[in-house]
Amino acid sequence: MYEGIKDIVSDKVDIIYDEEMSKHTSFKIGGKADIFAVVDSVEDLIQIEKYAKENNIFTFIMGNGSNLLVSDNGIRGIVIKLGDEFKKISVEEEYITVGAACSINALAQFALENELTGFEWAFGIPGSVGGAVFMNAGAYGGSMSDVVFETTYLDENYNLCKLESDKHKFGYRKSVFKTKEINGIILSTKIKLKKGDKKEIWEGMQKYINARIEKQPLNMPSAGSVFKRPDGHFVGKMIEDLGLKGFTIGGAQVSEKHAGFIVNLGDATSKDIKELIKYIQSKVKEKYNVDLETEVLEVGE
Known about the structure:
The protein has a 5-stranded antiparallel sheet, with helices on one face. Strands 1-2-5-3 form a 4-stranded mixed sheet, covered by helices on one side. A 4-stranded antiparallel sheet has the order 15-18-17-16. It folds into 3 domains: about 5-85, Uridine Diphospho-n-acetylenolpyruvylglucosamine Reductase, domain 2 (2-Layer Sandwich), CATH 3.30.43; about 85-200, Uridine Diphospho-n-acetylenolpyruvylglucosamine Reductase, domain 3 (2-Layer Sandwich); about 215-300, UDP-N-acetylenolpyruvoylglucosamine reductase, C-terminal domain (Uridine Diphospho-n-acetylenolpyruvylglucosamine Reductase, domain 1), CATH 3.90.78. Helix content is about 25%, strand content about 30%. It is of the alpha+beta class and about 300 residues long. A hairpin with a 5-residue loop joins β11 (about 150-155) and β12.
């Protein structure tokens, strides 16, 4: 099925067959991907996408894997991860241009070094910049929609395009990329911050990372907050008030530290996580008549 794929890309592309996706997700869960390709140029990315389209093969672009729940049966197709060339950062006055594969933490540190404020809230978020733009990641009252100025992406016809901030149609944990209004691959984004005091920026970053350490189960495999916040409710409090802290199905547990998190006790399967999610949703619906939507992205068979 994948004959000739190595012939159509440069030798810079790292192609791995039958790669365990549990190595690449923060949940430490997931079966094998048929092909896992680490790509370091737009040209190679285009070649793989063309190859997949011509051969009717599914492709999935992944970031840091911090918001993914991969099926126990794995992924039939090609998982593409953007490599080091997509982690570059540059600054011009109050604007930072950053590759989609760069981590949120590296971007926050870069903003600090350049005395730019407005991104402190993101320090400690484990995802990539591309993933953060895709889902309009946010925390502590801040979100990507506050800072994104322009995004460069590859459209479905392999054209390089730029999208201005207001065209992203950012909403709660969504953008035009998430809703598929634009079927494109995010390559980089430009954010606009403000000049600030380095000491104050650092103190802000420390405040947010300390809050995460205090309240979140950062020492255990998870995918962050599992559910979107419904209007007028706090997910963690609802789940805690139902007495579900510590509730376990298989190797999946409602975190004893923060009920809005599900953690992998060490041997959890994707099936365990999904069953626990459904159980929580049913109990919340029964008690509060609230439909909990997940933030976690499910992928695979």
